[in-house]
Amino acid sequence: MSINRTESGASLIEVMVAVTILGFGLLGLAGMQTKTVTMNDSAYYRSIAVDLGNDLADRIRAIRTPYMVNVDANPQPPAPPDFSLCTIYLTTVTCAAQQTSPKDRSTNAALVTTEMREWAALLQKQLPGATYSLVQAASSSTDYFRYTLTITWLDDRGTATNSSYSMVIE
């Protein structure tokens, strides 16, 4: 006597195809997650650069109005200090002596050096491989300097490339 059976269900080949498709989908999802994490780090570093740029702009604006010790002896206020005379090399910030001509004299040179050293320490602590360039730009006013700040840092998004952020400080 023969028994007539009808089998239903998935064959081994169908299961293997389904598992393969699922595996490729999960690999794609893992790759997308990795890319998202690296781009998130990049956005985080860029937001740090923006905050540091605004911090330096606030420091410059706070110091650029010079403090006048004796208004009667010298009725002409001194010119604001030139922050672009400060440079960074590795971890050392050096500020060149402020000029003492009547057009550009400063009583705040020590304060400028201190502020720039503090700011550069924050920059190097918060951004990997960070450097900056602060260039005095042409200004329509002779009372205040106008600067272009460029912050550059190592942004490792799979390739060792540098990213930068620029802003104008007035």
Number of domains: 1
Average pLDDT, to the nearest integer? 78
Count, helices? 2
| Sheet with the most strands, sense and barrel status | 3 strands, antiparallel
Strand/helix succession: HEEHEEE
Strand arrangement in the largest pleated sheet: 3-4-5
Low-confidence runs: 100-106
Helix-strand makeup class: alpha+beta
Number of strands: 5
Q: What Rg, in angstroms, do the CA atoms define?
A: 30 Å
Oligomeric state of the chains?
single chain
How would the global form be characterised?
A: rod-shaped
Helix fraction, binned, reads 40-55%
- The first-to-last residue Cα distance is 100 Å
Proportion of beta-strand residues: 15-25%
Transmembrane segments: 12-32
Keywords: Membrane, Transmembrane, Transmembrane helix
Protein name: Type IV pilus modification protein PilV
InterPro entries: N_methyl_site, Pilus_4_PilV
Architecture overview:
The protein is of the alpha+beta class. It has one domain (11-169). It is built from two helices and five strands. The chain has a three-stranded antiparallel β-sheet, covered by helices on one side. A two-stranded antiparallel sheet has the order 1-2. Helix 1 packs antiparallel against helix 2. The longest helix is centred in the first third of the chain and has 52 residues, at 12-63.
Topology readout:
Elements: H1 12-63, E1 86-89, E2 92-95, H2 109-126, E3 131-137, E4 146-156, E5 160-169
Antiparallel strand pairs: 1-2, 3-4, 4-5
Helix pairs in contact: 1-2
Give the structure's gist in a few sentences.
The chain has 170 residues and is α+β, with helices and mostly antiparallel strands. Helices cover 41% and strands 21% of the residues. InterPro entries: N_methyl_site, Pilus_4_PilV.
